Amino acid sequence: MSALNDLPTWLLSQASHRAHGILSERLAEAGARGYEYRILEALSEGAPLSQVAIGSAARLDRRDVTVTLTALVEQGAVDRQPDPADARRNVVQITETGHARFASLAAIVAAAQTEVLAPLDQELQNSLLQALRLLQPEK
Amino acid sequence: MSALNDLPTWLLSQASHRAHGILSERLAEAGARGYEYRILEALSEGAPLSQVAIGSAARLDRRDVTVTLTALVEQGAVDRQPDPADARRNVVQITETGHARFASLAAIVAAAQTEVLAPLDQELQNSLLQALRLLQPEK
DNA sequence: CAAATATCAGATTTACTGAGATCG
DNA sequence: CCGATCTCAGTACATCTGATATTT
Question: Is A4's CB within 8 Å of B58's CB?
Fold first, then answer.
């Protein structure tokens, strides 16, 4: 084991890479991207949101919101219309199709979390999550 | 706190992003890239290596080894010569300048590890590292 | 001829930036 | 005129793939 492989920063980036690989692979098997799941989750409560609000909730750049919504509209998962109250905005709302899609993806995402954490016993999982919460970026 | 922010995969990716940001910023302050540090570390024992061997030790793609070595040669940190025993290969060796550079960068990298883990007490640091080692990708 | 090595050009992914158009 | 919103084009970064020339 070299020094590189024992650096905390390296361990973090490799573990993150593995986790991301598992999650995006499971989503890809369902024909979805991570961005789509994040946007559907933001809309899953049912309340219509502007694209800025979606970006804020899903932690996505405005550009990526625009592009991903175009794909979701094509799938019929969301409805995007100009806001009658403020023509600068779009009002985006999840459809029935989108609700079903989100439920399906949410199950996949939950299973992926379990898969990612499988190498750890319950106690170590708890410690890991506690530590990771303390290591989150400021904002 | 939304569901997104509590997903283990999300916590991992955000913590990794923060750690990477801290490390690469500290290295950038010294005018170095992460790749340079990783290659210098691989060569720091003093043994000459082929570029394939460097890529293997530093976990870098062959392409990135080639490009990064060109920069390191320009800095005088390494010496790259055709292998007299096998003309397909280059023999790369660290120079005195490279040793000094590596020592300087190693101190920066060590300080960055401390900075990354600063939000955690000793026990949680230990648990985190134990968990992360179990979450490393195969291979 | 098959395999290995280094190099070059470019694709890919995720995240972000700048500029234009529209509107409040 | 200023600021917010959405869209488009393009940048930045790390990583990887394909093609090529050379040598074993």
Answer: yes
Q: Is the pLDDT of residue B10 over 90?
A: yes
Residue A136 to residue B14, Cβ atoms within 8 A: yes
Residues of B in contact with A59 (CB under 8 A): 4
Asked if B131 contacts A11 with a C-beta cutoff of 8 angstroms, the reply is no
Within 13 Å and on the Cβ side, how many CA atoms surround A58? 27
Candidates A1, A2, A5, A16: best to mutate against B (most CBs of B within 10 A) is A16
Beta bridge partners of A81: A91
Burial of A103 from C-beta contacts in 10 A (0-12 / 13-18 / 19+): exposed
Per-chain mean pLDDT for chain A: 95
Q: Kindly state the tokens that stand for A132.
A: 């990771």
* Closest nucleotide to the alpha carbon of A84, via C1': C23
CA distance A89 to A11: 43
Alpha helical stretches, state H, B1-139: 8-29, 34-43, 51-58, 62-75, 96-117, 122-134
* Strand B90-94 with B78-82, pairing: antiparallel
* pTM as predicted: 0.93
What are residue A81's phi and psi, to 5 degrees?
-135, 150
Structure token pair of residue A103: 């439920």
**Model confidence at B1: pLDDT above 80:** no
Can you tell me which residue has its alpha carbon closest to the C1' of nucleotide D4? A88
Inter-chain contact B137–A11, Cβ cutoff 8 Å? Answer: no
Rounded CA gap, B16 and B92, in Å?
Answer: 31
Output the average pLDDT for chain B.
96
Q: Between A and B, how many residue pairs show a Cβ–Cβ distance under 8 A?
A: 146
